[in-house]
């Protein structure tokens, strides 16, 4: 049995990045919900600033009717919605066309996140987001976002490299240069700033300038975050959580992304051309908890509509 060394609790370190930098970095952030989590929010206008983009995650097994109803409700409250289209859970082009028609007809959807999806075996004809794009069914959308993986993706590159991921991103870069839709790359959540900075700089060196919307895990219990991080394939930055879990003074405290966001905000302030355009929150500890943290750290830019 390991023996824990209890230490006297020291004063908390000052957050990295000053308040103005963090507020500027959080401006126009987006957030992700699922139909079942959205049901717990009585009115998104009491939590989110005007114009907040709300992604709607489509987990395998969720009926399309629930997805469309959630999009319709959030759109009616005044927020642009961006539903996920996971290629591997979509049976065929006819199914994809039906989903798009429902979203457009019932919820005025004009934005979409296209991704491969986490299931191991495709349900039908599609395996990746490029195949979805090639159908032409998203022509006319205002925005098309794709997935980004700052720490790699073992589903795409089982050998641990990023060869296939980079090849796909170069294809998407070429598409971004010929489409009228605005594009961005919404990434998996991470916990360490330096690898993210290095990855964004490498994208630029490879000629990929699709704006990055960096994934940030919202405040949550440490055990919850570790569980989600392992399930979602978070890479080396998982060690940040594991190190925290070994510190008895922090074990029972909720994780907050203050340092991670602060370091990225400071880097962006010092390098205005840096490729991160926005923050995308994964509210793993609850939407209200995440929105409250954003309000407290984002100042006036994060005030909810109904404030």
Describe this structure in words.
- The chain is an alpha/beta fold and 307 residues long.
- It has a single domain, classed as TIM Barrel.
- Helices cover 39% and strands 15% of the residues.
- Strands 1-2-3-4-5-6-7-8 form an 8-stranded parallel β-barrel.
- Helix 1 packs across helix 11 and helix 8 runs antiparallel to helix 9.
- The longest helix is centred in the first third of the chain and has 15 residues.
- The N and C termini lie far apart (51 Å).
SSE blueprint and pairings:
Layout: H1 19-26, E1 30-33, H2 35-38, E2 53-56, H3 64-76, E3 81-86, H4 93-107, E4 111-115, H5 129-134, E5 143-148, H6 163-176, E6 182-190, H7 193-205, E7 212-217, H8 222-231, H9 238-245, H10 248-251, H11 258-270, E8 276-282, H12 287-298
Parallel strand pairs: 1-2, 1-8, 2-3, 3-4, 4-5, 5-6, 6-7, 7-8
């Amino acid at each position: 049995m390991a023996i824990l060394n209890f230490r006297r609790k020291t004063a908390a370190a000052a957050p990295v990045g000053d308040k103005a930098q963090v507020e500027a970095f959080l401006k126009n952030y987006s957030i992700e919900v699922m139909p079942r989590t959205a049901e717990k929010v009585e009115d998104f206008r009491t939590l989110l600033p005007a114009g907040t983009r709300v992604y709607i995650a489509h987990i395998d097994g969720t009926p399309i009717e629930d997805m469309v109803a959630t999009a319709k409700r959030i759109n009616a409250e005044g927020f642009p919605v961006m539903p996920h289209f996971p290629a591997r859970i979509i049976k065929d082009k006819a199914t994809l066309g039906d989903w798009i028609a429902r979203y457009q007809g019932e919820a005025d959807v004009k934005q979409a996140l296209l991704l491969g999806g986490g299931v191991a075996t495709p349900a039908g004809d599609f395996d990746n987001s490029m195949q979805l794009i090639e159908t032409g069914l998203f022509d006319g959308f205002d925005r098309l976002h794709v997935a980004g993986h700052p720490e790699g993706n073992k589903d795409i590159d089982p050998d641990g490299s990023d060869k296939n991921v980079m090849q796909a991103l170069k294809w998407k870069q070429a598409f971004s240069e010929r489409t009228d839709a605005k594009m961005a790359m919404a990434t998996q959540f991470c916990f360490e700033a330096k690898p993210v900075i290095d990855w964004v700089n490498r994208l630029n060196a490879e000629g990929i300038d699709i704006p990055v919307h960096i994934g940030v895990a919202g405040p949550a219990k440490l055990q919850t975050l570790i569980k989600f991080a392992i399930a979602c394939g978070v890479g080396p930055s998982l060690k940040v959580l594991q190190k925290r879990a070994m510190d008895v003074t922090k074990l029972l405290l909720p994780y907050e992304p203050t340092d991670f966001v602060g370091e990225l905000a400071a880097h962006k302030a010092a390098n205005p051309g840096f490729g991160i355009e926005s923050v995308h929150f994964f509210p793993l500890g609850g939407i209200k908890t995440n929105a409250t943290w954003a309000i407290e750290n984002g100042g006036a830019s994060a005030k909810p509509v109904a404030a």
